[in-house]
Amino acid sequence: MQRSFVLTSLAAVVMLCMQAEAPAAEPAALKVIAVDSSASQAANRLDGVVEAVRQTTLSTQVAGAVVALNVKAGDTVRAGQELLRIDARAAQQGVVGASAQVDAAQANLTVASQELERQKQLLQKQYISQAAFERAQAQWDAARAQLKALQAQTQAAQTQSGFFVLNAPYAGVVSEVSVTLGDMAMPGRALVTMHDPSALRVTAAVPQALLAAVNAQAKAVRYELPGVAGHSSPQLPQQVQVLPAVDPVTHTGQIRLNLPAGTPGLAPGLFARVWLPVAGAGQGAQAGADRMYLPTSAIVRRAEMTGVYVINAQGQPSLRQVRLGQVSGDRVEVLSGLRKDDKVAAEPQLAGAAR
């Protein structure tokens, strides 16, 4: 029994020695992010909206019941594709009647032509007077004029029958369908709304006091689309257009920022923010306009304290209090508490555990 106890004690001592000699596991390296600083003069923020450069509300020029509806909201259509059809039976009967009248006028013109030819031959043989020949000539002219008038009416009826079919004016996406099968379509009533998704822009109303700064520093204008991947932070537009007219009621002008084509997730009606340059900001003000940003996931909130874990030169994290500004998408502006060369822990939970 004593021998067994001694062996067990010796084994325990050996295990403790091996654990003491084993090197300590190094803590996992913390993921570090640099403070994002950007020189920006876009201190004036405006609310805007995404709109399509080409957006069309389609209606009809004739009245009738909707008998065929071939699209729904969200469908992609090609140019010239039939969207809906209106009951055109009455119009088709009108075309048939007009065509019959043309046939009758053509027959009358044939008879008048034959009579004119006979009267011409009789006049040459001096069997009839000049007045009789002129009456035959007048009848032929009247028959020809009547034929032309009826042909024009037939063409108008055929053209009007085309108004009962609504086609897409260009390739695009159906935004809204305002009618259902059986609804009565009336001239001017909105039936289908569609837009071209390949050309979108951000539109915002600019106060009169800021128009001069926009015209002078159009390259400093930025936009952002909260919630849209890749556009939740200030972006450079492809083109900036300031409309020359000012609204006399609101005293605002309109600014348009073209968006890149083919960006997923964009649609007319999305909320947008527009950042405008500060009026009168020159090169001297540029240096003081640097702003620092951090991802919102790097912020630590404890009771009334807001801070971040700053990594020192030895790689050790330390909690530092900061003052935050406006949130822009997944980034937040840091007003004070950090310097441009600071390194911040991207995962504050792991940094707090490593202290």
UniProtKB/TrEMBL annotation:
GO terms for cellular component: efflux pump complex. Residues 54-190 form the Multidrug resistance protein MdtA-like barrel-sandwich hybrid domain. The keyword rRNA processing does not apply. One of its GO terms (molecular function) is efflux transmembrane transporter activity. Pfam families: Beta-barrel_RND_2, BSH_RND, HH_MFP_RND. It comes from the Bacteria. Residues 102-153 form a coiled coil. Residues 1-24 form the signal peptide. Residues 98-160 form the Multidrug resistance protein MdtA-like alpha-helical hairpin domain. Residues 202-275 form the CusB-like beta-barrel domain. Keywords: Coiled coil, Signal. NCBIfam families: RND_mfp. Belongs to the membrane fusion protein (MFP) (TC 8.A.1) family. This is Efflux RND transporter periplasmic adaptor subunit. It comes from Limnohabitans radicicola.
